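Whether sequence alone determines local backbone shape is best considered at the level of individual chains. In the encoding step, the backbone of a single protein was reduced to a row of integers, each denoting a local shape. For completeness, the protein is quoted in full, as a sequence line and a line of structure tokens.
***
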Amino acid sequence: MKRVADPASLFSRRENGPDVYKEFDATELYCPKCNQSMPVRKRLLLILPEGDKYEYLCAHCSESVGTKIDKHDKPLTIIT
């Protein structure tokens, strides 16, 4: 007889926990200028020691609608 895992136990595993989704990229955000949710473009704004900072721009009017910092996996070393 083949043993089948309990469906409830599948969600308690480590790979299905909160670490599964580490990074998200927005595809739509609310634009105050357009007064509705609009598609966005992601633009690199700054390169920081803790990560790269991106700005989200409305695809229709180019209004800034948010920012995001992508953290680096390992810290950068600065050579002086």
